[in-house]
Amino acid sequence: MLNNIKIKSMDIKTLRKILNKKGFLLSRKSTIRKQTSLINLYKICFASLIIISFFYILPTSYKFVNKKFQPTLEIENSSNQKLTQVLEGKILDETDFNNENSDNTNQDLVYQELYGEVTEEDTLETGVRLKASVLYQLFEDTNYNLKDVRLNKVAKPVEIGKLPYELKEIQNVKKRKELFIQIVLPLILEENNKILLDRKKLFAILNKNNNSKSDNEWLNKKFKQYGISKRDIPTLKRRMDIIPASMAIAQAAKETGWGTSRFALEGNALFGQWTYTDKGIKPAAAEVGTTHKVMMFNVLKSSVRAYARNLNTHKSYKKMRYIRAIQRDNEGILNSLELVTYLDNYAETGKEYTIILKKIIEQNSLTDFDDVKILPNSEAVKNLI
User: Fold this and answer.
1) What's the first-to-final CA gap in the chain, in angstroms?
2) Whole-model pTM?
3) What is the pLDDT of residues 267-290, one digit of tens each?
4) Is residue 222 a contact partner of residue 202, using CB atoms and an 8 Å limit?
């Protein structure tokens, strides 16, 4: 039946006319694709222009908003003026320090954090007491001698846990002093390095626009360690600083008789710090009714850490820290002969005590050790040198 149907041939023009009459719109396929591509390109270009414009004006807008809505902070560097006042004796009144908001101290917090931390670390240490002859051989094998240290300004990272009992038997005063310095100098420098690392991190955090959670946690920890009950950054900056090696050696020498005292040999106490806890040595000459003892430690480095924290936190040494901050701001170099003047509260003899410290520093040329660096035992310490 299909064979009887005749289908007429039809050209393209005729077909187009028929479809147009029916309402169909015909167009070339390539033309539709081109129009769609052009529309998409226009959209992409427009969106890109908006994004680029946004990021272009963002910094300018941020600066404008900050300028409009935040007060301008002016920081005055009055260090030179204050140094002159100090030298003239005009700024040593307690009110001057309070006006500087320099010491918001919670002393109970200091003792809790300080001795809790030091005691915890100290209990993990045992320490070995080496004989003097063994120490001499050790220092000789490692080429560690004070003549080279004074000349090259570099000390060996030798950590001695306890003083040798034979120290008090060395008749040659010069040799006894040299051995004592060889033992305590690396311990002092190591503690100072730890403080410098903390100080470097503190200034790095202060230079950030925004602090991370770990930054704030670290700051809170340091506020506690340095006995600051309020988040007082200027006070933290003043307290978080080193103790000049010459001053520390002089005090250790004075408090222990160059390492020969009972407190030093039995309790590893280099600085005669008092305690009212059970862990201490009762002074033989203590007055009746007194309950204080001299703090004792398992190893010498714990004594050094407790000493540094004591000078950096206790209200008795506020003036010393203040002068140290001025020295740091003006010259960057700490002058121990000036700083010891403000340690009159360290001993009952007061001013006489500071005079003796100056003599020990000068007579033994201890300032030679103030710019000595200890050989690094880590990459972080290496960056401090």
Assistant:
1) 107
2) 0.70
3) 999 998 877 666 767 776 666 666
4) yes
